[in-house]
Amino acid sequence: MMRKSANILITICFSVMVALLSLQVYWIVNYYKTTLKDFEKEVNLAFEDGIKKELDLRCDTIQNIIEQKLLDTNAFLISARFDKKDKKYIYTVSAKGNEKDKFSSSFSLSDYSKALPKNKSDTSVRKHVAGHLALLMREEDLETHTIYYRTQKLGLFMNEQANKYQFDTARLRPAFNIYLKARNIATPYSFIVKKVDSTNNKGIKKLDYAFVTRAFQTYRYTDNQRYVRAMFKSPSAYILSRMALLLFSSFAMIVIVSGCMVILLKRLFWEKRLSIIKNDFISNITHEFKTPISTVSVAIEALNNPVIRNDDDKYNRYLIHAKNEIERLNILVDKVLNIAIYEDGKSTLLKEKVFFDDKIMEIIHLHEMKAEKRISINYKNDSQLNEINVDPTQFQHAINNIIDNAIKYADEKPLISVTVQKKDNFLTMQVEDNGIGIAEKDISVVFEKFYRVSTGNSHPVKGHGLGLNYVKQIMHLHNGWYKIESKLGQGTKITLGWPL
């Protein structure tokens, strides 16, 4: 049932992930298309503004030249006549040497109306008139690309200047760049000028360019540069700059959701694995409890037999068996309770000086006495120390569990070595056996609660999966460390580091 639920959850998580990715891709593609359209729109607007700016720059130049030319008394004469009917001055510009080549203006849209000063050095009125006429010619002639010959000489001069300062891409580029920069567009581009073109983009070949603007007339008739376009390379930089927030948020969302799903699935698998381990633990500890309980039951039943009660030797023997099995049960219960206490952080240390040589030798003798098979345990102290500040009870439990495991999983002729050394600021205790060893995949988890290398209801060596976890909790409580090295079929080496 749990496996089926896990598979359903995995399928749901995967489906949600695929749906999220699909939705993100859909959003990004649509936003990309919209941004690309915005790019085309912005570039065309910038190009149109650039064309107008280039024309303004040319008109500014020619306007200033015309104004200076009109002020040149060797070329043109400016006179003023007062019109009694309109009650304003009418100004006339004529080519010097040809009085018929002239034209007049009354500045009908202006309040300006002054006579020419008799003092020839006062050129204020001439400057105003020349400036106004130059502006008028700019607006009516240059900006409409049609030159009106108000005077033959002035018309020829304007035409000459207009041809001299024709459309030029060198002047257009800096103007265009200003409007591109204002729109945060930094995509490389080139200009293409043609004699014949279409302003609706039909029939244009993009060549190696991703986007081409619409065509604008240059009004340059002296050569083949009649139309101009701007051709852009890939607009990816602009699009990415516009999509940066969306891409970042999408990526962040995917990473967060993926991370949560991974954590959820890891937790699921861990719970599944823990459930299996707990079931295994319950199966094994049930066996551990049943054996002493059965033994005590048999002993009590035997003690109720009058024949046994009258035989002191048998009576005492049954009592000892019952006592030993009860002590065995008590030790097992203590281990389970101690693990819970350590994990809840309720355990306290009662440190004192312990002469560890005596304590370790005592543990070794006890194991040698109760071992069901002949064992050989060698002890060596290379630390040049004989005492350590630890909790005596916990110290004994830790060493006892390590040696007990070494004996349980040792070869038919157990050979165990216990070595004490001093490394840095730690007293290390190394227990090495010639046992069955541990597979590499199991080494990282043998210190976990309830974990046993063998699984299922049957184990080559009976146990409850608490011993090494008990050791782990004790070492953490002492701010020490533990290390395990093992190869399958070649034995195991466990090292405990006690802080000095």
TrEMBL record:
Keyword Phosphoprotein: yes
Matches recorded under PROSITE patterns: HIS_KIN
Cellular compartments annotated: Cell membrane
Organism placement in taxonomy: Bacteria, Pseudomonadati, Bacteroidota, Sphingobacteriia, Sphingobacteriales
Designated name of the protein: histidine kinase
Record Pfam families: HATPase_c, HisKA
Start and end residues of each Histidine kinase domain: 284-500
TM annotation in the entry: 7-29, 243-265
Gene Ontology MF annotations: kinase activity
Enzyme category, top tier: transferase
Reactions listed under catalytic activity: ATP + protein L-histidine = ADP + protein N-phospho-L-histidine
EC number of the protein: 2.7.13.3
Top-level taxon of the source organism: Bacteria
Stored SUPFAM superfamilies: ATPase domain of HSP90 chaperone/DNA topoisomerase II/histidine kinase, Homodimeric domain of signal transducing histidine kinase
CDD domains named in the record: HATPase, HisKA
Entry keywords, A to Z: Cell membrane, Kinase, Membrane, Phosphoprotein, Transferase, Transmembrane, Transmembrane helix
Membrane topology field: Multi-pass membrane protein
